[in-house]
Target: ABC transporter
Amino acid sequence: MLQAMQATAECPKPVPQKAPLLTVDNVTLRYKTSNLLITATEKVSFSVGESDRFVLLGPSGCGKSTLLKAIGGYMTPSSGTIHINGRQVKRPGPDRMMVFQEFDQLMPWKTVLENVMFPLLMARKLPRQQAEALAREYIEKVKLTRAIDNYPHTLSGGMKQRVAIARGMAMQPDVLLMDEPFAALDALTRRQMQDELLQLWEDTKFTVIFVTHSIAEAIKISNRILLLSPHPGRVKAEVVDVDKIRHDAAASAELEQEIHNLLFSNEPGHRE
Ligand SMILES: Nc1ncnc2c1ncn2[C@@H]1O[C@H](COP(=O)(O)OP(=O)(O)OP(=O)(O)O)[C@@H](O)[C@H]1O
Model:
């Protein structure tokens, strides 16, 4: 694993194992405020293959959420390009569904079933019966069938996140974009949700880009991890083949320490 890290730290060009589904090429993202130009990420490149569980990991403020927003099509790069399935990302689309950290991402006046059905009806324009069947299937996958007619205010934080995941997955997007979806949960629920996400992945092998600043969470759920430097975010290194060590506690702990050292060391370790 150290080898993988060092090799990629010296040459952080990603090494995807399958043809890339998504490519982020030399992307710089900036925010303009009334008197400031803030560079969130600088010249970031990576690619994501089909069925990857790709984690963007880095300290607070390094631009992880901003990158996810740009992949979602909610923000245009100042320079560089993002392509999905060979098409340049220019706006949001049903091929990229987002799950956020906030529990209030559901519509409070709609039940669990109606929340999950909503984008299927509005964005995919499915007939009602088909939308309902698909919504029920994914609500079942996240183990919420018993709460299918509940309104969001009656659900726990973890249950709300399950609804958001079901809503994203039911759309069967090319890639699911998850922005710290478990960060606001208590530790026990968080671990449970990580396990459930992995189980869902075993069932459907969806592609996911997952943002976190927890090194342990990154190792637990990913097969690949992109490490970003502190603000402005640049690629520091990529960890490949995380799957090989996930079930080895000693190797995971060693990797966790190595990532920690790399993320919090001052040496630049990035390409200009
Ligand atoms: N709407 C905005 N307007 C101006 N600057 C912003 C805006 N959103 C984010 N930024 C700035 O861009 C940089 C990257 O922010 P971003 O939220 O993408 O980081 P992050 O890595 O996701 O952080 P965290 O882990 O704390 O969520 C930060 O300096 C932040 O202050």
Remarks:
- The chain has two domains: 1-95+174-266, 107-172.
- The two ends are 25 Å apart (CA to CA).
- Confidence is low (pLDDT under 50) at residues 6-11.
